[in-house]
Amino acid sequence: MTAALRVSDLSARVEGKLILDRLSLEVPFGEVHAIMGPNGSGKSTLCHVLAGKPGYVVEGSARLAGADLFEMGIDERARAGLMLSFQYPTEAPGVRLRELLLEALDERGIDPGEAASRIEGEGRRLGMAPFLDRSLNDDLSGGEKKRSEIFQTVVLRPKAALLDEIDSGLDIDAVRDAAKAVEEMRSPDIGVVMITHYSRILGYLSPDRIHVMIDGRIVDSGGSELADELESGGYDGLRSRLGIEKRPSDKPAREPAGVLADPPFMSDEGR
């Protein structure tokens, strides 16, 4: 069966520094996978490379519903059904959320009537109706911005969604709301990758698989018991169990700038 997202032996370098190291990941349609890892493990870089941020030296392969992602440009990847929900959503004064979604749905060949109906319906369901005619992320709280990112994902219905630290900077109520929205995103037509530092959001949703990323590689995968292990022993405890030595700390390589420059793409430094 074709997976929503299949990554094989993916390596990525910046300024000669290896950030992703032969990473492999498969996310079937209909499943939600969580990726956890300490700061600087390469989680956000994985999203950047898959989305097409320029400046990386990349080896390996990545396929979206069987199609070769690395043969596509940034816009082609989006049209093909890959969506990245940003850790730091950018503000776009003067660009209304409704207009943005109508334009994006038109690019995907969705009938204008169906597009308008989908936006209105999902807006009511996810509590985003009051924000449809406001500028994108302008004067929104952190929780509202994250809810908007999830809302956009639900409306656009990608084949694979990359949720980069959707719980970052949220209070406990907003984390619960974000988790509920991710669960409601489940569908046989989408695979979801949710990146997080912490296990607290996993208390409100049930990912099909949890992966732990350390030093640019997925070093362990499992169920809720893996999150429980991290909660009790931390990443050092996991390193000890797996026999992974901690690398000497050094200054991370500078993230490449380009068409998709910061923000919303941010450096892996400190992550």
3D architecture notes:
The chain is α/β, with parallel strands linked by helices and 271 residues long. The protein folds into two domains: 170 residues, P-loop containing nucleotide triphosphate hydrolases (Rossmann fold), CATH 3.40.50; 48 residues, no CATH class. The C terminus is likely disordered. The radius of gyration is 18 Å and the shape is globular. The strands form three sheets. Strands 6-9-10-3-11-12 form a six-stranded mixed sheet, sandwiched between helices. A four-stranded antiparallel sheet has the order 2-1-4-5, covered by helices on one side. It has a two-stranded antiparallel sheet with strand order 7-8.
Write a concise keyword list for the protein shown above.
single chain; 271 residues; alpha/beta; Rossmann fold; 2 domains; six-stranded mixed β-sheet; four-stranded antiparallel β-sheet; 12 strands; 32% helix; 26% strand; globular; disordered C terminus
The coarse silhouette is: globular
Task: Please mark out the parts with pLDDT under 50 across 5 or more consecutive residues, or reply none.
Answer: 259-271
Oligomer: single chain
Number of helices: 7
CATH class of the largest domain: Alpha Beta
Main beta sheet: strand number and arrangement? 6 strands, mixed
Strand arrangement in the largest pleated sheet: 6-9-10-3-11-12
Full CATH superfamily name of the largest domain: P-loop containing nucleotide triphosphate hydrolases
